[in-house]
Write a structure and sequence with these properties.
218 residues; mainly alpha; 3 domains; 9 helices; 0% strand
Length: 218
């Protein structure tokens, strides 16, 4: 390599360094900001996870303490006072409070706790649908048949988590209205469903026999 070529290469390299330093002076803050955001985001995620774990543990401790109370009325009252930060935690508290209120004979409070979940559209569908099903079962004949049927039909749709249990209760409503054939047909559909549990299949089969039908899939 000649002295001229060497000189040109040195000058070119110097120009590159000058351009790089100029770019760093002009845009270096962006790189620094990006690093800070990455580090800050990671720290925030760790803090959020730790906070959620702590909240879940505190909620679990509160629930255990309440459930260990021997008196049913006091137990229900203790559960009703528990607050949870997450929607799932709130749903669990409400369901437990409803069950304990029912055990202590306070059906009004039991229904009230379930109503809280039914009226929360932002809550996960599984929690709301469980509340609807439990509400219908708890209300029984105190709720008009038409209202019970309307609530159950919203649960008896394809893909719903409590679809078959809702169908079972709809069959019970058919019986209550004196429509045995409709009940038997619905129960046979339950038996033939690929998702039916062994317990539900057994209950449906026995009910069909009680109604005077044959427990065969339609």
């Amino acid at each position: 390599m000649s002295e001229t070529d060497s000189f040109i290469e040195e000058v070119t390299e110097e120009v590159r360094r000058d351009k790089l330093f100029a770019l760093m002076r002009k845009y270096g803050w962006i790189a620094i900001l990006a690093v800070l955001l990455i580090v800050g985001g990671a720290a925030y995620n760790e803090w959020r996870k730790a906070s959620e774990e702590a909240a879940a543990q505190a909620l679990g401790d509160s629930l255990i303490a309440a459930l260990e109370i021997e008196d049913a009325t006091a137990r229900a009252a203790a559960l009703a006072k528990i607050t949870a930060e997450s929607e799932g935690g709130q749903a669990v508290v409400a369901l437990l409070a409803s069950a304990e209120a029912r055990s202590s004979g306070n059906n009004e409070r039991a229904v009230s706790e379930l109503a809280k979940l039914e009226d929360k559209p932002e809550l996960a569908a599984a929690y709301r649908e469980m509340a609807v099903l439990k509400h219908v079962l708890l209300a029984g004949k105190d709720m008009p048949v038409a209202e019970r049927r309307a609530k159950l039909e919203t649960l008896a749709v394809a893909g719903a988590p409590f679809r078959l249990l809702a169908e079972e209760q709809l069959a019970m409503l058919d019986i209550e209205e004196g429509n045995k054939e409709a009940a038997i047909s619905r129960l046979r559909d339950i038996i033939s469903d690929v998702e039916v549990s062994a317990g539900l299949r057994s209950r449906a089969s026995q009910l069909i026999v009680v109604l005077g039908g044959k427990a065969e899939a339609s």
